[in-house]
Design a protein that fits this description.
Blueprint: E1 7-9, H1 13-23, H2 29-47, E2 54-59, E3 64-69, E4 74-81, H3 88-94, E5 99-100, E6 102-107, E7 114-120, E8 128-133, E9 136-137, H4 141-152, E10 158-165, H5 167-176, E11 181-187, E12 190-191, E13 197-198, H6 204-209
Parallel strand pairs: 1-11, 4-5, 4-6, 4-8, 8-10, 9-10, 10-11
Antiparallel strand pairs: 2-3, 6-7, 12-13
Helix pairs in contact: 1-2, 2-3
The structure holds 1-O-pyrophosphono-5-O-phosphono-alpha-D-ribofuranose and uracil.
C-alpha cells in the first residue's frame, strides 16, 4: 500500500484460521455469524491497543494496588447497515460500555454508489473514539460516505475496521480520508466486474441474515 496510507492487516493465526471458515461457501449462517463475531473481537483487541488509561487504586484481599482503567473515553461502535451489525456483538464482549451508532447505506446495484437511508449516533463526548465497522471494503464508496457523515456531525476520532479489503477500496479510502486508521483481517486480490471482492466471502449481508 502507498506510503502515508494508514492501512494495516491484523495478521494473527487465529484470525487467519477463522477467516478460512468464513470464506468457505459451505459454512452455514449460524457458524458464519459466530466466526464473524470472534474475528471482530480478536481484531478489537489490536485496534484498541492505543486507548488511554487513567490510574486508579483498588484494595485487593491483601493490600492496596495501583491499577489502571479506561477512564471517561467514550467508545462508539458504528456498524454500516446491514452487514456491519454482524460484527458488533463480538466487540461489545470486549468493550461492554461502548455505545452504538448506526449508518444505513446500501450500494446501488447499477451505479455502485452508496445510498444513505439511516443515520443515528449518540451525543458526542469531548473525549470520544468512534470505530466504524463493515465486513467489506470493496470500492470504498460506503465507508468513505459513512466517514463523511460522521465528520459532518463533528466526530474527530475515527478508526475503520473491516474483515476483507480490496486494494481498490483501500486506495480510494486512503485518498478520501488519509488520516484515518484502517484495519482489515485480510487484503484480497481485486474486485470482479460487479465490484465483489475476489476471492472474498460473497455477499456479507446475505450470508449473515440468510437473504441469499
Ligand atoms: C456491502 C458491504 C459494504 C459495501 C461495500 O453492503 O457490507 O457496506 O457493500 O461495498 P463498497 O466498498 O463498494 O461500498 P451492501 O451495499 O451490499 O448492503 P447490505 O449490507 O445491506 O447488504
Ligand atoms: N459487499 C459484499 O457483501 N461483498 C463484496 O464482495 C463486496 C461488497
Amino acid at each position: 500500500m502507498d506510503k502515508g496510507c494508514k492501512f494495516q492487516v491484523i495478521n494473527h493465526p487465529l484470525i487467519r484460521h477463522k477467516l478460512t471458515y468464513i470464506r468457505n461457501r459451505l459454512t452455514g449462517k449460524k457458524e458464519f455469524k459466530e466466526l464473524v463475531d470472534e474475528v471482530a473481537m480478536l481484531m478489537a483487541f489490536e485496534i484498541t491497543r492505543d486507548f488511554p488509561l487513567v490510574k486508579t487504586t483498588v484494595e485487593t484481599p491483601l493490600m492496596k494496588a495501583d491499577c489502571e482503567v479506561m477512564g471517561d473515553l467514550q467508545v462508539v461502535l458504528v456498524p454500516i447497515l446491514r452487514a456491519g451489525i454482524g460484527m458488533v456483538d463480538g466487540i461489545m464482549r470486549l468493550i461492554p460500555s461502548a455505545r452504538v451508532g448506526h449508518v444505513g447505506l446500501f450500494r446501488d446495484h447499477d451505479t455502485l454508489k452508496p445510498v444513505t437511508y439511516y443515520f443515528k449516533i449518540p451525543p458526542l463526548a469531548e473525549n470520544h473514539q468512534f470505530i466504524l465497522i463493515d465486513p467489506m471494503l470493496a470500492t470504498g464508496g460506503s465507508a468513505i460516505e459513512a466517514v463523511n457523515l460522521l465528520k459532518r456531525e463533528g466526530v474527530k476520532n475515527i478508526k475503520f475496521m473491516c474483515l476483507i479489503a480490496a486494494p481498490e477500496g483501500v486506495r480510494a479510502f486512503c485518498d478520501a480520508h488519509p488520516e484515518i486508521e484502517v484495519y482489515a483481517a485480510a487484503l484480497d486480490e481485486k474486485l470482479n466486474d460487479k465490484a465483489y471482492i475476489l476471492p472474498g466471502l460473497g455477499d456479507a449481508g446475505d450470508r449473515l441474515f440468510g437473504t441469499v
